[in-house]
């Protein structure tokens, strides 16, 4: 029915995997929830389900809410199968990107003694280049520019930053 390709992330109550539906190659995310970790339950028809699944079922008609494809109950867990649109960013990735952006802002302030942008328009204007005082080395300029790249997906990962020669 579904082919699992790999782990997306692990949280306190379960793990999320990426994969696809075998019949039509629909990209899906499959969340595995251990029943022992479920704190809050609701009744759906005649079945007791985790509140997370109940809320997802209840909000299916709301635009922008991830589409629930299917769900399964086993003796020890629930599997929630959700559509995984290709052009989206999950919350873990979004948090990582914002963390890297914040690090770039911090490094700029630390080395330059000022903030890199005065307004939102300054941030959005791609022709607006960062200006550095002469005392900031080429290596530090490079890492700051990478962290403050306007395209989120072009920013380095935390792992990339930690392996950068400046942090060795």
What features would you describe in this structure?
By secondary structure, this protein is of the alpha+beta class. It has 2 domains: about 1-85, Phosphorylase Kinase, domain 1; about 90-165, Transferase(Phosphotransferase) domain 1 (Transferase(Phosphotransferase), domain 1, Orthogonal Bundle). It is about 30% helix and about 25% strand. The protein has 5 helices and 7 strands, in the order βββββαββαααα. A 5-stranded antiparallel β-sheet has the order 1-2-3-7-6, covered by helices on one side. The chain has a two-stranded antiparallel ribbon with strand order 4-5. Strand 2 and strand 3 form a beta hairpin. Helix 2 runs antiparallel to helix 4 (about 140-145). The longest helix is centred in the middle third of the chain and has 22 residues, at about 90-110. It is elongated and about 70 Å long. The mean pLDDT is about 85.
The end-to-end distance, rounded to whole angstroms, is: 46 Å
Task: Give the helix level as a range of percent.
Answer: 25-40%
Shape: elongated
Low-confidence segments, given as residue ranges, are none
CATH H level of the largest domain: which superfamily? Answer: Phosphorylase Kinase, domain 1
Radius of gyration: 22 Å
Please report the first level of CATH classification, the CATH class of the largest domain: Alpha Beta
SSE arrangement, N to C: EEEEEHEEHHHH
Mean pLDDT, to the nearest integer, reads 87
The total domain count is: 2
CATH architecture of the largest domain: 2-Layer Sandwich
What structural category do the secondary elements indicate? Answer: alpha+beta
DSSP strand count:
7
- Helical segment tally? 5
